[in-house]
TrEMBL record:
InterPro entries: Nitroreductase-like, Nitroreductase/BluB, TM1586_NiRdase. PANTHER family: NAD(P)H NITROREDUCTASE RV3131-RELATED, NADPH NITROREDUCTASE. One of its GO terms (molecular function) is oxidoreductase activity. It comes from the Bacteria. This is Nitroreductase. Residues 7-245 form the Putative nitroreductase TM1586 domain. It comes from Bifidobacterium oedipodis. The lineage of its organism: Bacteria, Bacillati, Actinomycetota, Actinomycetes, Bifidobacteriales. It holds the Pfam family TM1586_NiRdase.
């Protein structure tokens, strides 16, 4: 796995991890994660914080067996009542998730499987901010065995571990002809977005390619039933698309355009 160090590799092997080893994130790993977080927080105007060794935040989920040994998390904190910040949170926190994946850590976005009030006690949230979501982080169960797996074995797990909407469902406004003639960067972008995490695996984001101006657009699908976390999922899907496309930049917002250069 050592030679696979690019963000696209992380996309190809990442899955939600719900069982962790009972091993703390040590100071050295914490420092490396914090070094990733600091510039991202500046860029994103967010306050993503690493909180270690607080198993009480996950008492219920660990006791029910839904999670195992969950104890550390990224607290995703940003400005209150700010839709664009919620989208940025998805985009930039997923960037941290992918970095953590490349370091052999497992992650799980959490909206429900934690005690949010307890989680808020261990991070800094000012009066103008709120705690949006969390990402559980830690060494996956049997992590030495996990880290010994080849890249091909890990991509196979990623490909088969859950259902996904099809490429056609991800591009519902396009005809078959338009799909076929779309540039490779668009197809690779959509394929990377198909591997993105989303709340309850609803995959609420769709994409389209506009040949007239060579742009892509991302939309929230209102029928996906994901009103609550859709902006976060929009940000996550846009990050995956951008990495899959290889280069380019999004405009924020539902319907935001992607320019590939
Ligand atoms: C915003 C968000 C919230 C989530 N909340 C939870 C949660 O509370 N509990 C849980 O077990 N999984 C949660 N998940 C994980 C999703 O269920 C998971 O990402 C999805 O099923 C796709 O699987 P994958 O991540 O393995 O690709 C959440 C994911 C996202 C993006």
């Amino acid at each position: 796995m050592a030679e696979h160090t690019q963000l696209i590799d992380a996309i190809n092997i990442r899955t939600a991890v719900r069982a962790f080893d009972d091993e703390p994130i040590d100071d050295d790993m914490a420092r490396q994660l914090t070094m990733t977080l600091e510039p991202i927080n500046l860029l994103a105007d967010l306050s993503i914080q690493l909180v270690r060794d607080q198993p009480r935040v996950f008492t219920e989920a660990n006791a029910s067996g839904h999670l195992t040994n969950a104890a550390n998390y990224l607290a995703i904190v940003g400005p209150k009542n700010d839709d664009e910040a919620k989208e940025r949170a998805g985009f930039y926190a997923e960037r941290v998730v992918l970095t953590a994946t490349l370091r052999g850590l497992g992650t799980l976005w959490v909206a429900g499987s934690w005690d949010r009030e307890q989680a808020a006690r261990h991070c800094r949230v000012s009066d103008s901010q709120e705690l949006y979501l969390g990402v559980v982080i830690g060494y996956p169960a049997n992590h030495l065995e996990y880290q010994a797996k080849s890249y091909e074995q890990l991509t196979e797990v990623q490909r088969t571990h859950r259902t996904s909407k099809t490429f056609e469902q991800f591009t519902p406004t396009m005809s078959d002809e338009e799909r076929q003639s779309a540039p490779d960067w668009f197809k690779a972008g959509v394929e990377a977005a198909m591997k993105a995490p989303s709340a309850m695996n609803r995959q609420p984001i769709t994409f389209s390619y506009n040949a007239a101006d060579d742009t892509a657009a991302a939309h929230i699908d209102p029928t996906a039933g994901d009103e609550h976390w859709a902006l976060n999922d929009l940000g996550i899907a846009k990050l995956h698309f951008q990495i899959g496309a290889g280069q380019g930049k999004w405009a924020w917002g539902d319907g935001g355009l992607f320019i590939h250069r």
